[in-house]
Amino acid sequence: MLNLVLFGPPGAGKGTQSQNLIEKFGLIHLSTGDLLRNEIAQGTELGREAKKLMDEGVLVPDKVVIGMISNKLDANKDAKGFIFDGFPRTVAQAEALDELLASKGSEISGMIALEVNDAELEQRLLLRGKSSGRPDDANPEIIRKRIKEYNDKTAPVAGFYQAHNKYKSINGIGSIDEIFGSINSVIAAY
Ligand code: B4P
Known about the structure:
It contains ten helices and five strands. The chain is an alpha/beta fold and about 190 residues long. The chain has a five-stranded parallel β-sheet. The chain is globular and about 40 Å long. Bound molecules: BIS(adenosine)-5'-tetraphosphate. BIS(adenosine)-5'-tetraphosphate binds near residues 11, 15, 32, 124 and 128.
């Protein structure tokens, strides 16, 4: 199985590059952001709880997202592999993912991190906010809060994969095709 973690701060291009990877490798895309927005759209209790936190730019509890991922892995037993987009976002989530995959006789192939500076992230998210209708993209203060959450809680996840020799970082600034080319070079080495 090819199991990729696409990593990077909010707006780094994880969702964008996932679309290219799904087409090329036939992988199942698991975006915790999309799964949570789906719960919100359906008006579930989980969605109502998550919305408050997401609108403030803070992470939702580990237990919630780990449960969602576990359900999706169970529902896709015959998959060729998965792209984990926006997950794991804490070291506890990374440990839980390793356990979930190990229980299915599988593992993460590698993490690919997209490096983008804060000014570019803010610009991209504000631009998306004009059309996405996402409250967390509309306000520069919330965007900065999301970047701070990333630096405080998510950036340490890179060290987790580095310690397992599964980490590669690439430049996330440039055209979408150029960045996809860099991602493919990393995958070719797996
Ligand atoms: P996510 O939905 O994961 O959103 P994201 O980090 O904003 O986006 P991404 O990096 O995928 O950016 P994209 O490609 O779209 O998270 C939202 C919230 O959900 C979190 O704040 C948190 O509250 C919650 N959450 C999600 N997962 C969680 C977890 N595991 N644990 C706890 N909480 C969780 O790109 C952004 C923009 O840039 C787009 O407009 C795109 O067109 C543009 N772009 C992309 N590549 C570009 C390029 N090369 N050049 C120029 N623009 C580019």
